[in-house]
Amino acid sequence: MIMIGATARQSGKTELASCIIKKFCKKEKITGIKVTTLHEDDASFHRSMNLPSDEKFIIEKSTIQGKNKSTDRMFVAGAIETYWVHSKAGFLNDALQQLLPLIDKNSFMVCESNSLRKIAKPDVFIMIKNLNDNIKNSVSDILEFADLTVNFNGKERIDFDLNILKIDNGKWIIKK
User: Fold this and answer.
1) Domain containing residue 49: CATH number
2) What domain range is 170 assigned to?
3) Across 12-170, where does the E strand assignment appear?
4) Mean of all residue pLDDT scores within the chain
5) Number of domains forming the structure of the chain
């Protein structure tokens, strides 16, 4: 799995995920995943994603709905399937355990998530650093896990070449 996190919202996670999917989908099956972790204190960021009080998490297998959702964009980029996981903070591991058996076993995953990095170790973890915004509190404890940091100036990624990524022996790697 390649996991993409960011230091702030609106920092190009979906754009980078879509570029990676587009580059690799011609030769490999790629599954796109977006994980939204719902914390009590950030409901204003996730206006349309409130879970019913009795639900711990929801996993949506996405179909294109024309709403320009992250998963729509990943699907259009060439993912064979996309999933959007909405999870309350304490149930992310449960959601992951339910998600993994749903994914095509021959597929390589591209995932947008900061919170998932706290419980899962991807092949490659890319952190997008938004140069125009403060670092979210939820990110400070995972910054050190980034295999690669990509700067974002509000309009484009700086100093990043997709050609440094590769699939080798069944896993994602960064070319040396």
Assistant:
1) 3.40.50
2) 2-174
3) 29-38, 57-61, 81-88, 107-112, 124-130, 148-152, 157-158, 165-168
4) 87
5) 1
